[in-house]
Amino acid sequence: MSILIDKNTQVLVVGMTGREGANHTKAMREFGTQVVAGVTPGKGGLTHEGLPVYNSVRDAQANHQIDCSIIFVPPAGAADAVLESAHAGVPLIVLITEGVPTIDMMRAVQEVKQLNAVSLAEGGKGIRLIGGNCPGLVSSGESKIGIMPNKIYSEKGRIGLISRSGTLTYEAAKLLGDAGLGTSTTVGIGGDPIIGTTFADVLPLFEADPETDAVVVIGEIGGADEEAAAEYIKNHMKKPVVAFISGRSAPKGKRMGHAGAIIMGNVGTPESKLAAFADANVPVADTMPQIIDLVKQVLNK
Amino acid sequence: MQTVTSRVTWLTGVNFSLYTPGWNKRTWVKALRRNILKLHEYQGKELLRRFGVNVQDGKVAYTPDEVRQIAQEYGQAVVVKAQVHVGGRGKAGGVKFSPTPDKAYENGQKILGMDIKGLTVKKVLVTKAVDIDKGKEYYVGMIVDRNVQSYTLMACAEGGMEIEELAVEKPEAIIKHRVDPVAGLRPYEAREIALKAGFEGNLNKLADMMVKMSKAAFELDANLVEINPLFVGEDGIPLALDTKFDVDDNAMYRHKDLADWRELEAEHPLEIEASNYGFAYVKLEGNVGVLGNGAGIVMTSLDVVNRAGAKPANFLDIGGGARADIVYNAVKLVSKDTDVKAIFINIFGGITRADEVAKGVIQALKDGILTKPVRMRIAGTAEEEAKSLLAEVNSDLIQMYPDMFQAAEAAAQEANK
Description:
- With about 300 residues, chain A is α/β, with parallel strands linked by helices.
- Chain A has helices at about 20-30, 55-65, 75-85, 100-120, 165-180, 200-205, 225-235, 255-265, 270-280, 290-300, and strands at about 10-15, 35-40, 45-50, 50-55, 70, 90-95, 130, 135-140, 145, 155-165, 185-190, 215-220, 240-245, 285.
- Chain A has 2 domains: about 10-130, Rossmann fold; about 155-300, Succinyl-CoA synthetase domains (Rossmann fold), CATH 3.40.50.261.
- Chain A contains 10 helices and 14 strands.
- In chain A, the strands form 2 sheets. Chain A has a 7-stranded mixed beta sheet with strand order 3-4-2-1-5-6-7, sandwiched between helices. Chain A has a 7-stranded mixed beta sheet with strand order 9-8-11-10-12-13-14, with helices on both faces.
- In chain A, strand 1, helix 1 and strand 2 form a beta-alpha-beta unit.
- The longest helix of chain A has 20 residues, at about 100-120.
- Chain B contains 14 helices and 18 strands.
- Chain B has helices at about 25-30, 40-50, 65-75, 100-110, 160-170, 185-195, 205-220, 255-260, 270-275, 295-305, 325-335, 355-365, 385-395, 405-415; strands at about 60, 80, 95-100, 115, 120, 125-130, 135-145, 150-155, 175-180, 220-230, 240, 245, 280-285, 290, 315, 340-350, 375-380, 400.
- Residues about 1-35 of chain B have low confidence and may be disordered.
- The chains are: A alpha/beta (about 300), B alpha+beta (about 425).
């Protein structure tokens, strides 16, 4: 069943009647995603493209089974929308919005984690947030809950893909498709400093997925998520992983106070990430096309 | 004895994002572009004062006469400090101890109008001098830390420049604490941190200063706030001698009052123009104009242009969902750059429609704005429509390629002609 979502996942679109919400609802349905309803506060009772619109997530739940909500709400209300879905017990929440204030995300992410713990303790499905500032996720040929172009995900493959960058995700998926390898599930975890799900959170899911043979991790300079991913791979993963790091020739700049230097040390540099992956025996591609060669190599081992 | 001043320095050879765990790519680019809100020392102090932090008295002066006046008013030795958005003021001679009002006037004359790393000093802060020898200098700071998904508060009994060496040599000397993003810093936690760090002085007042600093960070959406040095004199009362603030760009909409503090200075004119369009743009050294949709793809585009044997002239992210008019403006902007010999456009449409991109480029060509060869790769949503639009125009100036490497190679070739 790929990971996180499949063809049976029932989706609620929060902010469905807005410009982005409407466009992407249409594209998701064209892909084959089961969008069952939308939420726009104040527009409850209307229909949009034949789908019912509700005032709140709870109202939608009263009439539908909701497995996942995808959020297209402007930055000022985005974190609130996340919490609405989380408190309603929606097991998977995808926040697409870019530009949400960092503090709002800190608070939302922490609260989602607490709700997740409670849900799991009570024997529930747990609650997971993906994003913000992310392209969403897609199980190729089955269901797309996000904003990526449809056609590169039309056919199912056996490579899992996780990325911090939107456009590079599409790039890698297209290359994998053209090479005849294809993707099982693609997860865009988002480019913001505070995000709900990290590389290290997704890797175990791929490790346990019978439909995934290898995983491609697309990282970036900055932060320590790639280093944490390498640590997980080293200690817990049997499936082969290939990595790519973008921004290695990015312009140099200044630092932010002493605090930044203290907190990060040398973590975050391309060198640090390369060293971490080398330590975990993860080959790192120099260019995007090289990802394909490396994936083929690790599969043939 | 003069007070130690803000010691934020430029660090070359190390990536910006390395030191900004709390920043996303867009903010990083904006910071490079220097159009994010930067605060002067006196503004940061003003913000801390609003939250009840005991801050060193000081006033801003624009002329040497005003400097003398403030010094007379204080009736004691003062320090005259250049107010510019750049580190290394002290080393450049922009911070001077002034025992008398006359000396303050003289130092004001020297510092006002001086050039520090390409920036002209237009104002100075005149503060009461503190006898550093009669007290201790500490460091406290809070920064967005993606590794703990909240703020990390840092406290260290050794303030000043040495703190970074200390972080490497004796990391245990710096106390780190995750601040709960909902509850904020609780007074008992602040007391524990002060004790652990080995701060001497009035414990409750020290803790209170940290709690207030934390409140300021949360209320003002700070990516970073530092009090350095935090001075504790013989009376045991903590006093903030200098501070550094950095505000989250995404939250500026709820801090309209701070937006007035934005100062555009010493920027490349194209960077100023770009910020008016709302683009993430950085002027670089090379001759291939680069534009793409999303910081990730633009970063990779720079890598690819470098590989193709040319140098990028700029970083330009038009963002997601870009419509024809936005692309038109982007092409206009890059074309204005006299360094640019060829333009490399790299678009992968998810939220962005490829046909909209093509329309923007074609309109720029029709209006005579586009005079340099454009080599582009547009893929994704509405790719076919984009191809047919370009086929209709059929101009040598605009050529499309199936992948970004070929497009970058072609652009590099044009630029190196």
